[in-house]
Amino acid sequence: MKVKNLWIGLFTVIFLSFVVLLYYGKEIYFNAPPVPNKIITSNDKVLFTKSDIQYGQNIWQAMGGQEVGSIWGHGAYVAPDWSADWLHREAIFILDLWAQREFHTTYISLNEEQKAILQTRLALELRKNSLDNNGDMHVSADRALAIESVESHYVSLFSDDPALHELREAYALPKNIISDKEKIKKLTKFFFWSSWAASTNRPGDNISYTNNWPHEKLVNNVPTSSLIIWTGVSVIVLLMGIGLLAYYYAHEEKNEFTEETLPAVDPFLNLTQTPSMKATLKYFWIVTALMVFQIIMGIVTAHFGVEGTGFYGFPLADYLPYAVTRTWHIQVGIFWIATSWLATGLYIAPAISGYEPKFQRLGVNFLFISLLIIVVGSSTGEYLGVMEKMGVDVNFWFGHQGLEYVDLGRFWQIYLFIGLWLWFALVLRAILPAIKKDADGKNLLILFLISCGAIALFYGAGLMWGKHTNLAIIEYWRWWVVHLWVEGFFEVFATVVIAFLFVRMKILRASMATATVLFSTIVFLFGGILGTFHHLYFSGTPIGVLAIGSAFSALEVVPLVLIGFEAYQNVRLSRSTNWLKDYKWPIYCFISVAFWNFLGAGIFGFVINPPIALYYMQGLNTTPLHGHTALFGVYGMLGIGLMLFCLKTMGFKANWESKLLGSSLWMINIGLFLMAFLSLLPVGMLQTIASVEHGLWYARSAEFMQTDLMNTLRWLRVPGDTIFGIGACTLAYFITTLRRS
Question: Where are the transmembrane segments (predicted)?
């Protein structure tokens, strides 16, 4: 636990992890599913071209992309996974065609022996990689007819065909979501390509580009041996990691606090509020407003799942489609959580150093205005993009990129990237004097700055793709943003900030805090950086990604297993002295973070992380189960806790033992728990059973999702969502009633 050794260990882990991450990035680049130059029939007729597929991808992005169904399992959950849906419809068409031709009946009417004969022939045709040396793909006349038939279905679905009205309602698709039928046809070319990559063998291999995902027995898309082997390895790695960490924890030097060792009064009581620290107050008002807005959008989005395109009879989708509400629900969630954390950094930097750099308040105010412009501008652009008020080219820059968590247009991405570097500069100039004079806490301050710099740097991964980049490569970089930026270095930042707060409150010794945080960061990043690959098992990546991702994502769970000790310490802390009782609810937020870290990030995360589990679960409601409980339960509650800490130390007159504040936090946590266990978990488990028995296409189909049981389970979100929403509104009311002393 020597600090020097810990620094060496930290940089070694980061360096080696990114060497591997970048190496496989190169492998993904060279082995991504190719986009054929031309698709040609057996009589040399060109069906469509590479440019048609690429333009179709841009249309898919503009209409909402991953916010309208999913591709390769990534995206929304009401509409189908278009890759799996296309594959099944194409397979059934060909099987019916052959059954009529050879047995004069439908495929479903055949006996098992006849079905087996046709399925074997179908698998041979669809799994054969028919790309020639010129990059052209050759298809049979029968497959060309199937492509034409499925295309016709999607043209009817995305336009206004009355025959598919009920199906559109089930998918929460407004009629004429794409008004130009020629654009719909281009969109279908992209769907075909994503399905082709999911069912066609890689050159020289007998597995598809997506490692045989999705599960579709008709074309012999079944789990590979690698999925089973590496699932076993991930479980073994998890058990080893837990054992080693438990051994370490048993021998760790404890920072035991007693009431006698704690200060008699609040060390923050006489904290001098600099102009820039006071200027951060408005950030927290915006955080509160955005949180409430995000929850409202979540309620509307969830309701679309049971009433299609309406909201209690009102045709809401005509004015505010599902794609928009879900986009705003996710993106605004990221915005308010990040804003809370960024404001905390701006607030504590001068508090630590006691130094207010020149023009610091101006910088804080300028950054605030910029963040408002980004939030309003990007949200408006996404709405206009989905509503077809922009061309495809303009949409890429100012509209909707169609990529979950990175939906905002490229201009807004660049603007936010610059804003994050401005934030880093503001924090840096305020904290440097403390590094020069604070020998005891110097290492902790340096780690704080490193985490701030990483937050600014790693958002730049979202700028690494262009308008026509292969989807497999886009997914690689997108998960850098989602996993490394949101889940990775923000987590390090939060760990350091909480340690700072406890050190300044004289609860932790600086030397112990430094060693603990460095060790925790090493453990977290050791699994977390390469754990990024667990999102990419079935996104057109090589087997090595699956192997590394499964092993290292298991290690992400290891530090969460013993998190109960941290929660217990925080409970004791909140009850230790009279002045610390004033911090009861901010500390309880950290206890809540520990609980949801264990349940949402740990248990629900590991449920879907092993390769064989994710093979059947990817794209099902087990993913939002993990997403809601981890994103809000961990990062959201942490953002609320940091906000309350800052507001408390600003000197607000408020009864911090208030029943109002306590009730709101309990309702938020109870509501989130009910949302998970009454609805998301049972829906996800039933979908998993359907996926194992029939295939992903069925688990996401209207036929299955619109049964009475599934509708009842979706309606059961109402109790949890209502309690959660009331709790959030109560918290917002509490914050808005605070007054400066």
Answer: 7-25, 227-250, 283-306, 328-350, 362-380, 412-432, 444-465, 477-503, 515-537, 543-565, 585-608, 628-647, 668-690, 715-735
